[in-house]
Amino acid sequence: MRRVLPVARWEEVLGGQSGAQVWRSSRFVLKVAARTGLDTGGLERPLHAEALRLRWLDGRLPVPGVVGYEVTPDTEFLAMTRLPGVPLHHPDALFHPLRVTELLARALREMHALPLRDCPFNASLAFTLRQARARLEAGLVDEANFDDDRGLTAVQVMKALLSTRPAHEDIVVTHGDPCLPNLLLDGEYLSGFIDVGRLGLADRHADLSLTHRSLNRNIGPEMAEHFLDVYGRALVDVQKLKYYALLDELF
After folding, report:
1. Rounded to 5 degrees, what angle do the CA atoms 181, 183, 186 make?
2. pLDDT of residue 24
3. What is the bridge-based pairing of β-strands 21-24 and 189-193?
4. What CATH number is given to the structural domain containing 190?
């Protein structure tokens, strides 16, 4: 990565939940992730998946540019340009909760309106449930990180997901993890989407459930419900919100 990144003062970014280590300079961001071995079973390497999706999104939506990607037998490295702004959960952003909420709703509507035929990435429920089972069997699911009120083991979550699987998917281009830390605010505008490694064609509720939960946690239930109003209540299925929030426990 020294071939593509200039000498700079780097600082570690703490608080992420992706499992990757993250450093940033004034112009660039570097992610480093240990390989889990899951990619040998046909699943994507996380940072390689992110690099592919960033390149596809370039010119479609504001995202970091890919500077370089490298992989060794043990580790992945992804270097990107750094976007301006602060994440939506930052205190400076949360000082304007209504703005954050409405920007989030409009940003997701914009992403979900991208043409399906152009997107080569599969994040359908069948694909995601296979990923969840692989993570479960590999011992990568952290039950300690489950929502406090679940009272379920990872195996019980998997069984519940299979027994209550929705019969129909409302397919759009989804971000995959559109919680507040993964969108950036620069002044009065969203400056971009980050952490797009799970982007793909999926039910819109895969996004809506995580944004709704993130707003509940970071701002409160009133803004979480307002988000659904701005996005469009006619498109929202409350049972699917609960289902996809449960599915996310395995990731």
Report:
1. 110
2. 94
3. unpaired
4. 3.90.1200.10
What residue ranges in the chain does DSSP mark as E strands? 11-13, 21-24, 28-34, 66-71, 75-81, 86-87, 171-174, 183-186, 189-193, 200-203
- Do 94 and 181 lie in one domain? The reply is yes
Residue 4, in any domain of the structure: no
Q: What is the DSSP letter of 60?
A: T
Nearest Cα neighbor of 30 from 67, 84, 85, 72 is 67
Section 159-178 average pLDDT: 97
Distance, in Å, from the CA atom of 55 to the CA atom of 177, rounded to the nearest integer, reads 18
Q: What is the CATH number of the domain that holds 52?
A: 3.30.200.20
Dihedral, 213, 214, 219, 222 alpha carbons, nearest 10? -30
d(CA 163, CA 235): 24
Boundary (domain end) residue, out of 81, 102, 121: 81
| Residues constituting the chain | 251
pLDDT in tens, 4-29: 888 888 999 987 666 789 999 999 99
Same domain, 91 and 65: no
Q: Indicate the residue type of 199.
A: L
Crossing angle between the packed helical segments 221-231 and 97-112, to the nearest 10 degrees: 40
71 and 98 belong to one structural domain: no
Among this protein's residues, is 142 annotated catalytic? no
Question: What's the domain range around 141?
Answer: 86-250
Sign of the alpha-carbon torsion through 219, 225, 231, 236: positive
User: Out of 177, 203, 207, 248, which one is annotated catalytic?
Assistant: 177
pTM of the model: 0.93
